[in-house]
């Protein structure tokens, strides 16, 4: 069939489809446009025409035009169903804890690595007082010692709601960004994630060890225990998600590296989303609860119950028989 | 085929050709987006701090910075047909590899993993990945299964029915193969966009077909005959 005849046969349908696509892409079907119900039929016709035109090499301009129509139809017809995805309650009470438990080996490994490094460097900083100055300069150390001074430190001083709000914003911005970067840098064969986790363990261990040596253990742990339950766990979970990416590249198993990476990326999404939500909670606790001047017993009690809550939540929630 | 095309097979069994976009237009779109984010954030800053420095304003500003930093591309890509404002201006669109519009999880992955594309510095990993991959995918695209394609309607410019051929149709002196036929038709389609000298030069190449005199007119009339013009 010659091009002119082919075009004469199909032109009316193509223009009709183009008009329908124009209106649907704007999100509404206008008064003049064809009814939506015609889309599947018009689309399948144009797919036929495209295959024919290409096979007969009718004209690259026509093939281009039909390809564009088919592509736009394809995008409309096969788009993901919107509005069924996010169910926050189901996510928090089952999907997220289950995603964490599915990776229990990596979760355990990351916790072991992180806390042994933390305790190790803490012990070193406790025994050698000069160690901390290799990482933090002198004014920084002095400032930190004052903050957690057991008798008249800043932590025990009441601060206003304004500062709390500012700090809440800061923790959201800073901590969640760190978590996302820890996750993403796992793509560098897991090295980026490990460096990030190690850096955080060193930082925390160093400060803790130094403050214990200075006799500021009680105010320091009273401050960190509550939000630490969410913050440290979430940081480690973002590390687990990052390690999933890295391990998929290092040891892809029976799949190609690309296929393994894609599967790992998909599977680590609930983990990173859950970690981000936990960090929002942690930011709230750190900004509004942790700096409150309250009896130490209460702070430790609340902190301990939050740790217990996180452990039970991630360990049990959403469990079904045989899980 | 020297065009950068990513072919997708639809359930209808037809191959759709996705025109994938290379590093240069994508860098351009990224630059525009960066500019928009900076301008947007500084106007948020101006509004928030117009009533003086307060802790609440500071907190809100930091949260706005966080949301812009991580979710600006995600929100626009998912809610605005795969296009951030920068991509819209440059004429790009993000789609899944099967040509369907990009969804939440793929968009979150490809944009968060941009951090890895930045490594070790200045998007070296991402640019390397784009240069090596036939579909110009950066690391985030590879992991999320997405493509960045040209969204402009290139075929609008070159509609088949707009190819007007003044010459009278004439059959070729000998039978042409399918490839040769489509080359002649492609010439007729592109001739209006070529300079006259260049068109003459190209038409003179198939000398056996066009003969010595007026090769361009001769080739166009063969094209008209092939197209079935009366």
What would your notes on this structure say?
The complex is a heterodimer of chains A (323) and B (230). By secondary structure, chain A is mainly α. Chain A has 2 domains: 75 residues, no CATH class; 229 residues, no CATH class. Helix content of chain A is 75%, strand content 0%. Chain A is elongated, with a radius of gyration of 29 Å. Chain B is mostly helical. Chain B has 2 domains: 148 residues, no CATH class; 68 residues, no CATH class. Chain B is elongated and about 85 Å long. The model of chain B has no long low-confidence stretch (mean pLDDT 84). Chains A and B meet through α1, α2, α3, α7 and α10 of A and β2, α2, α4, α5 and α7 of B.
Keywords:
heterodimer, A: mainly alpha, 2 domains, elongated, B: 230 residues, mainly alpha, two-stranded antiparallel sheet, 4 strands
Distance between the termini of chain A: 62 Å
Structural domains of chain B: how many: 2
Backbone shape of chain A: elongated
Unreliable parts of chain B: none
Helix content range of chain B: 55-70%
Helix- and strand-based class of chain A?
Answer: mainly alpha
Structural domain count of chain A: 2
- The quaternary state of the protein chains shown equals heterodimer
Give the CA-based shape of chain B: elongated
Largest sheet of chain B: 2 strands, antiparallel
Structural class determined from secondary elements of chain B = mainly alpha
Beta-strand content bin of chain A: under 5%
Briefly characterize the structure.
Chain A is 75% helix and 0% strand. Chain A has 323 residues and is an all-alpha fold. Chain B has 230 residues and is mostly helical.
Topology at a glance:
The complex is a heterodimer of chains A (323) and B (230).
Chain A: H1 3-25, H2 39-55, H3 60-77, H4 88-102, H5 104-127, H6 138-147, H7 161-184, H8 191-213, H9 217-250, H10 257-288, H11 296-316
Chain B: E1 5-9, E2 15-19, H1 23-48, H2 55-79, H3 85-90, E3 92-96, H4 104-112, H5 114-118, H6 124-132, H7 139-144, E4 146-150, H8 154-157, H9 178-190, H10 196-204, H11 207-210, H12 215-227
Antiparallel strand pairs in B: 1-2, 3-4
